[in-house]
Amino acid sequence: MSEVRDRALQATDTPVVLLDAADPLLAAVWVNAAFTRVTGLRVADVQGYTLLLPVSDGLAARTDVPHAHQEPRRPAELEAALRGGAPCGHVLPVRRVDGSLLWCRVQVSPVSAVEGGPVTHWVAVLQDLTEQRTHEAAQEAAVAAERRERRSLALIAQVSDLLMDLDDPRALREIAGLLRHGIVGWAGFYLADGGLRPADGPDPHPHAHLRTTRHTAVLPDGATKDPVQRVLDGQLDRPVEVDLDVAHLPGSPSAWLAAHAGPRPRDPALDADGIALDEPPDRRVVVLPITGRRHVRGLLVVQPRGGGGRAALETAQVTVLELVARRVGMVLDNVRLYEREHRLAEALQRAMLPEQAEVDGLDVWTYYAPNSANAQVGGDWYDVLQMSTDVVGVVIGDVVGHDVEAAAAMGQLRSIVRSYLFDTSVPGPVLDRVDQLLVGMRVPRSASLVLSTLTRSPAGWSLAYSRAGHLPSLLVRAGAVTELDGAGGALIGFGRGTRPTSTVELRPGDVVVYYTDGLIERRDRGLREGLDQLGRVAAAVTARDAAGIGEELLSRLADHTEDDVAVVVVRVPDPQDVMARVRSPRRRRWSLPSEAASISRARHAVVRTCEAWGIADASNAELVVSELVANAVLHGWGHVTLQLYDTGDGLRIEVEDANPAPPVTTDGHPGRVGGFGMQIVERLSDWGWRQSRGGKLVWAKVRPGHLPSHEDEDEDDD
After folding, report:
1. Strand arrangement, sheet containing 88-95
2. What is the C-alpha to C-alpha distance for residues 717 and 698, in angstroms, rounded to an integer?
3. Rounded distance, CA 118 to CA 53, Å?
4. What 8-state DSSP symbol labels residue 73?
5. pLDDT band at 67 (very low <50, low <70, confident <90, very high)
6. Which of 151, 370, 631, 706 has the fewest CB atoms nearer than 10 Å to its CB?
7. DSSP calls for 480-506
């Protein structure tokens, strides 16, 4: 029977090892053929071989076996079972004869020489776990890959959320922080706007950063071979590695990055576990292009955790970085396109509106602001016409829609009203003719408007008006507000029959406020409630000039507008204005075209504002504003914005234009007149400048008084 048992143990496909219980290390004394087949170890090779001792590299063998290195301790649970003489199982690696490892589950059972006697041997049965562990390893790898993909998708989603807020000036900085937290040790964005510059957000105004540290677009000879320059030129569409510690061609993008990119002292490099390193192992960075639709908009520069350059980034990490760079590039393109469309639309809209008019015998102030959330043209409009010495026409209206079709309808309507208004000064008949013509022209958009004429006579001013579906204008007299709601009718183009005309006699000090619904309409309140609030605000106005009245209305009503806003304020001057000084808003603003006539308009605005505010002498302010507006007209572009502030100890003048280049003080232009404008400004005021959203803003705080006399100049020279 024993021989049959021995042959059975030899014939089984399960590896079996017999261990000597008397040996402290439980040395192997016998193995079956299956063990030899699996491990390559024969009976002669296992003399002294111990199966149940772990080793540093996963091998279990005795120190006298040449292919093993033994550790002195068994696993605690295995040691406890052996001491108690109880069967136990444990997963252990067994080294084959060729040095490879075979992971097995070893089931150990005690064997006694006689029934109930002491344990003389241990029999160990090995179960090959190679296939199972390979499957588990594959599963673990798949799970790890899935986790990485989920983290990558989550990071991309967070980047997309940040990029949805196009107005966030710190979006790129936050995205760089996400990359640093997720996959790299350091990240930074650099936009290519006439040269590289660090960027925190998708700024739609690249020229607003001319004073920041930036790389010049003028390249030295040989710079086209620079790898970063090739990326910027679109010649390379893949990540490139740049060592910031080596010398680069002076003036090249790589040299600029070496001086300005990479982790700062407070941003140390991180190892694979996110732990800060005392010193970064190297300063190799990976540069990826931020590609728009046609051009490279900038660079994403990253440093892998622990350094190592491009080789330290996994393929999945590079994919995430490329996706982030591509999305940022598309958003930058969209921001620039949106901003350009918005500015062109606003310029077109403003071109269709008249500039602020100077009317003989009346104080007139006009204001228009497009809806900031809408980059389309169309919407509200106004017109102020000096038809003769004693007749002034005022029109305000609203074309339905915000698109090019609405703008075209507005332009047609404005021209028609202007033409007919010069034929007759009675508003009702003018609108009758406008109705007839618009029906024949089949203008596709409807519109509302108020058409009024103010006629001067020896007794004063008389107001005649007719309304075509528009909100009533307000008459403010001595703190009482009256809605001019007479002469109502259908929208323009839908009039049937004769349109009526209402008249009102105006007194000195009376104010007429024309407005569009954007001033009062809100989602959280009804139109009637908005009209009531406008009436309350208008009744409480304390200003004595049209600009001050308009500014008070805007400050209280137009802080969160949801639509275009147009306002025209007409005030009949009162001889008592100079004597009745009351507190009024100490802020005025005007939008002027970039033309020479704006210089005189600005001077006139300063003189009238100083009169309204009780500033005794406006000579210095008049000359300073003349020079500032002249510079904006000569050297800038776009509309010129003039703002005046009463600071309590002087008059602050602010002039804004679309040219971001700073003003320069010169000693004149050789061979021609001029060039001393900023010297005059410097002589008469404290001045400075700053970048603005649309270009630059030049400010001057004017000291009150006359121009300096010759004696003052001599004293200054001393």
Report:
1. 28-31, 16-20, 119-128, 101-112, 88-95
2. 27
3. 22
4. -
5. very low
6. 706
7. EEEEE--S--PSBT---SPPP-EEEEE
Give start and end residues of each alpha helix (H) in 237-293: 253-260
The pLDDT tens digits for 349-377 are 666 666 555 678 888 888 877 665 554 55
What length does the chain have?
718
Across the beta sheet with 240-243, the strand order is 196-198, 186-192, 296-303, 284-291, 240-243
Q: How far apart are CA 437 and CA 434, in angstroms?
A: 5
pLDDT given for residue 133 in this prediction = 72
Q: Are 386 and 376 in contact (CB under 8 A)?
A: no
Please state the three-class secondary structure of 111-136 as a single string. Answer: EECCCCCCEEEEEEEEEECHHHHHHH
| 422 CB burial (10 A radius; 0-12, 13-18, 19+) | middle
What would the two tokens of residue 272 be?
């694979």
Q: Which two tokens stand for residue 539?
A: 């009744």
Q: What is the dihedral of CA 570, 576, 582, 584, to 10 degrees?
A: 20
Instruction: Give Cα separations from 494 to 184, 434, 435, 437, 567 (angstroms).
Output: 66, 10, 7, 11, 25
Q: Which two tokens stand for residue 301?
A: 């520069």
* Assigned token pair, 710: 């010759």
Quickly tell me which residue has 């990055």 as its tokens. 257
Q: What are phi and psi of 625, to 5 degrees?
A: -65, -30
The pLDDT value recorded for residue 74 is 64
Element (H, E) at 223: none
- The amino acid sitting at 175 is I
The helix or strand, by DSSP H or E, that contains position 316, with its residue range, turns out to be helix 315-351
Residue 68 vs residue 513, higher pLDDT = 513
Residue with the two structure tokens 């202007």: 418
DSSP helix, strand, coil percent of the chain (3-state; round to 5): 35, 25, 40
Lookup result for tokens 């990479």: 262
What are the phi and psi torsion angles at 272 (to 5°)?
-65, -25
CA distances from 481 to 249, 469, 484, 541, 636 (A): 73, 21, 10, 11, 42
**DSSP bridge partners of 569:** 365, 513
The pLDDT tens digits for 79-127 are 777 777 888 888 877 777 777 778 888 888 888 877 778 888 888 888 8
Question: What distance in Å separates the CA atoms of residue 218 and residue 228, rounded to the nearest whole number?
Answer: 15
φ, ψ for residue 212 (rounded to 5)?
-80, 160
Cα distances from 234 to residues 222, 250, 609, in angstroms, run: 17, 21, 55
- Residue 500 burial (10 A CB sphere; 0-12, 13-18, 19+): middle
For residue 245, the model assigns a pLDDT of: 85
With H, G, I as helix, E, B as strand and everything else as coil, classify residue 101.
strand
Coil, helix or strand at residue 256: helix
Contact 609, 590 (CB under 8 A): no
Helix segments in 397-486, DSSP class H:
404-421, 427-441
Contacts of 224 (CB under 8 A, 6+ apart): 230, 233
Task: Give CA–CA dist 622/617, Å, rounded.
Answer: 9
